[in-house]
Amino acid sequence: MRWVRDLTGRFPQRPHYDQKELDNECEQIILSFLREKYGECHLPISTDDLSIMVEHDTSDLDLYVDLSTEGEDIEGLTDFFPDKKPAVKIAKELSLQSWRQNRLRTTLTHEYGHVKFHAFLWNFNQPKLIPDSSLALGPRCKRGSILDAPITDWMEWQAGYVCGSILMPLTFLQKLVQSAMKDWGLYSWIPVDSDHARELIARVSEVFDVSNDAARVRLIKLGYLLKIKQGANIFGD
Fold first, then answer.
1. What are the angstrom distances between the C-alpha of 189 and each of 19, 103, 168?
2. Fewer beta carbons within 10 angstroms: which end of the chain, N or C?
3. CA distances in angstroms from 45 to 156, 204, 218, listed in the order given
C-alpha cells in the first residue's frame, strides 16, 4: 500500500492498493478463516460464515435494517468510529428475500472490504470530509456500485474489488479458468460476448456461489475476459 492524494476530498491522502496486493491479502484472510474454523478450506464459503467473518471485525452487524431513509438504492453501509470497530448495516430485503442471496453475499463482502481496508483511516487520521457529505460516518453503498464502481471513486472501487477477491479467491479462480481454457484449446483472453465467456461465467458462478454479474466483473478485472466483439481486430489493421 502507498499513500496518494485523495482527489475526492474525503481525506488529504488516501491508500492505494495494487490489485495483486488486494488479491493476496484477501486470499489469506479467507483461507485463514476457513482453516481456523474447519481445519481445511472448502469453497464456496457459506453466507453464514461470511456473516461470522464480518462480525469478528465489527462492533455490530445488522442484517435486517430499513435503509430506505439513507437514500435511493442503498443496500449496505459501514459506520466508522475513532474509538471502536466499525458497524455494518445491510438492507433487510437482502436477508428476507431468498432470491437475493447472491446480492446479500456480495454486499456483505463489499462492506467487509471497507472494514478491513478503510477503518484505520478513522483511527490514523481524522477524515477531512466534504461539507454535509453522507460520508460523515462512512460510505453508503448503492446497488450499482457494490461490484463495479468507477475507479475514480477509490473507496467503493476497492471495496468492490475485495468483494470479488473474497468470494472468488485468485488461486482457486486461476485453476478453474486455466482448466477451462485448456479444455477449449485457448491460450489468451476471451471476448466477453463469446460463447466461451458465457460458459466460463456460468462455471465461476456455480463453483463460487456468486451471480453471473459478479463472476463477469471479476473475470474482466483479472483480464480473462476482454470487452471487445468476438472476431474484432483490436490492433485496427
1. 18, 27, 18
2. C
3. 23, 14, 17
Residue 3's DSSP bridge partners are 15
pLDDT at 133 over 70: no
Report the distance separating Cα 5 and Cα 13, nearest Å. Answer: 4
- Which amino acid is it at 26? C
pLDDT band at 89 (very low <50, low <70, confident <90, very high): very high
What does 129-196 look like in DSSP terms, one character per residue?
PPTT-GGGTS-EEEGGGTTT--TTSHHHHHHHHHHHHHHS-HHHHHHHHHHHHHHHT--S-EETTSHH
Q: What's this model's pTM, rounded to 2 decimal places?
A: 0.90
The phi, psi pair for 93, rounded to 5°, reads -60, -30
The half-sphere exposure of 88 on its side-chain side, counting CA atoms within 13 A, is 28
- Element containing residue 4 per DSSP (H, E): strand 2-5
Average pLDDT, the chain: 88
- 155 has pLDDT over 80: yes
For the chain, which residues make up each domain, given as ranges? 2-167, 170-226
Give the pLDDT score at 134. Answer: 45
82-92 b/e with 16+ CB inside 10 Å = b?
eeeebbbbbbe
Judged by phi (left if over 0) then psi (alpha if -120 to 50, else beta), residue 227 lies in beta
Q: Buried (b) or exposed (e) across 37-58, using 16+ Cβ within 10 A? A: eeeebebbbebeebbebbeeeb
* Cα–Cα nearest to 169, from 34, 17, 55: 34
